[in-house]
């Protein structure tokens, strides 16, 4: 029997929680005021009415490029009440990366931190749809704004003057609620169209598999433009009726102190965040906390045990998911802690097989193949890639979504994540479009051809970016430092390659497609320049 999805809309859930538990705490930013469910519901209505007053209609995209702050949540809630679509933008995007996101979504209204406005001013001519940008009131200074030719900059407080009366717009689980961008390999990043039902299941999955209760307090340092922060942590809290503490960004130096101060019971760690936390000085008070579970992805046996002994964490969880496919593999609360094990298929909502990536035929138990996923319920998956139907079809071969991730399924039905299969680069929790990285370097006068691939750093298992470059005939090789000085202002800091290698040949197929698997398998050559070893610092 199909699930009743009528309540799978964030505005409706918030309204119901505000009705049944109005004075319960919901969200606190840093050390500020703890907002109750009733207060947040009123703010959501004010934001929704305010956005409607400035002309945002059903299905309209609004670009949000903010650090973690409460205005991000007010925008999400308000837009969801009137059928608007939040386009979360990675706060490191600039140059052609930012142009692509804004051009693809054709957003005419944005909400930006003032520190990102100069990047917008630089690309103003390339984003003709963008008309008005709002800046949060606490940082709005009309005398320090960059010079725009056409785009108008206003204060976000104007939106929050909307009335807090109830909004009657009918929004359903079938309607698009967000667009999140994921990396590309042979083309630009792709905007995943995420229905409200899809958004809800991200939170509901965490609620179920972390055994969340209204007494839980979730510590959220993850950025809200990623599914981790806004859906897996905050939305899960809202659905459960618990409370959350959000900070501007992850800080390894204060991670456990913040958790202790706010009496947090749940936290997430992603990738090298595990290592960063463990590198901090060991203190006796580290074990003095109320954590009951940490969702850490991925971890080794050694890392998990070090975290457990250092911070007295009683339970760990791992989950497998993607922006496009939700969280189809989850470890049950009662399952043992096994590093690298993502859990079992959440078969109430999803089907998952491990298949031969060449044939899409299911492989034997414990054999490594590609993780393929498809939904059992409508609208609990992405609805496609915004404006990229050919990419949607390409990913949905043989009625399965191809994740590009390798894994195996053991005899118990537990899935173990192995590594990436596709050419997508994943570095420190960020998915990087190799296509967009290459496009920046190809604009350099000395570069004839190039290829960006993921390689393993010498000191650990994390992916780093290697750029292989063929120079133009007769061109003098630029100093790697000068090459990165050229690239850094044109790309997100996290996408700037760590390694630069001048080569005479890049392997290709007979149809001239770069064989990045061969470059990855080759790894680092003796000639590869390492910016970290050279002491080169990437400017943000």
């Amino acid at each position: 029997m199909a699930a009743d999805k009528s309540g799978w809309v964030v505005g409706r859930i918030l309204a119901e929680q505000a009705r049944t538990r109005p004075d319960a705490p919901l969200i606190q930013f840093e050390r500020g005021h703890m907002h109750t469910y009733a207060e947040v519901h009123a703010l959501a209505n004010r934001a929704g009415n305010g956005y409607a007053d400035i002309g945002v209609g059903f299905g309209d995209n609004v670009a949000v490029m903010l650090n973690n702050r409460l205005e991000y949540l007010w925008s999400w809630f308000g837009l969801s009440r009137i059928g608007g679509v939040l386009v979360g933008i990675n706060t490191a995007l600039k140059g052609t990366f930012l142009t692509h996101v804004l051009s693809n979504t054709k957003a005419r209204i944005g909400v930006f931190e003032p520190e990102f406005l100069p990047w917008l001013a630089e690309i103003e001519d390339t984003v003709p749809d963008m008309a008005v940008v709002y800046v949060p009131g606490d940082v709005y200074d009309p005398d320090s704004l960059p010079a725009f030719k056409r785009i108008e900059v206003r204060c976000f407080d104007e939106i929050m003057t909307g009335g807090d009366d109830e909004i009657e717009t009918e929004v359903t689980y079938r309607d698009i609620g967000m667009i999140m961008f994921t990396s590309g390999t042979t083309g630009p990043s792709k905007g995943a169209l995420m229905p409200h039902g899809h958004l809800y299941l991200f939170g509901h999955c965490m609620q179920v598999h972390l055994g969340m209760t209204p007494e839980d307090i979730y510590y959220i340092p993850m950025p809200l433009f990623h599914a981790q922060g806004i859906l897996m942590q905050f939305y899960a809290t809202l659905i459960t009726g618990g409370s959350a503490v959000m900070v501007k960004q992850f800080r390894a130096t204060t991670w456990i102190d913040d958790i202790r101060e706010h009496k947090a019971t749940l936290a997430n760690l992603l990738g090298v965040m595990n290592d960063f936390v463990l590198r901090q000085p060991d203190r006796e008070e580290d074990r003095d906390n109320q954590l009951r579970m940490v969702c850490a992805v991925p971890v080794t046996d050694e890392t998990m045990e070090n975290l457990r002994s250092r911070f007295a964490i009683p339970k760990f969880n791992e989950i497998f998911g993607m922006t496009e496919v939700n969280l189809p593999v989850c470890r049950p609360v009662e399952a043992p802690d096994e590093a690298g094990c993502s859990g079992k298929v959440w078969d109430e909502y999803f089907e998952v097989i491990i298949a031969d990536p060449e044939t899409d035929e299911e492989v034997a138990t414990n054999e490594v193949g590609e993780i393929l996923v498809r939904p059992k319920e409508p609208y609990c998956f992405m609805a496609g890639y915004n404006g990229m139907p050919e990419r949607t079809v390409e990913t949905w071969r043989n009625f399965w979504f191809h994740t590009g991730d390798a894994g195996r399924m053991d005899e118990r039905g537990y899935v173990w994540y192995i590594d990436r299969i596709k050419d997508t680069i994943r570095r420190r929790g960020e998915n990087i479009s190799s296509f967009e990285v290459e496009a920046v370097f190809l604009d350099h006068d000395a570069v004839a051809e190039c290829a960006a691939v993921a390689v393993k750093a010498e000191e650990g298992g994390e992916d780093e970016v290697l750029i292989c470059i063929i120079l133009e005939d007769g061109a003098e090789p630029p100093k790697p430092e000068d090459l990165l000085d050229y690239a850094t202002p044109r790309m997100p800091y996290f996408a700037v390659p760590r390694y630069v290698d001048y080569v005479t040949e890049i392997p290709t197929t007979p149809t001239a497609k770069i064989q990045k698997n061969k470059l990855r398998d080759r790894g680092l050559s003796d000639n590869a320049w390492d910016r970290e070893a050279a002491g080169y610092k990437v400017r943000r």
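The chain has three domains: 10-25+34-195, 198-420, 429-530. The domain at 198-420 is CATH 3.40.50.12780 (Rossmann fold).
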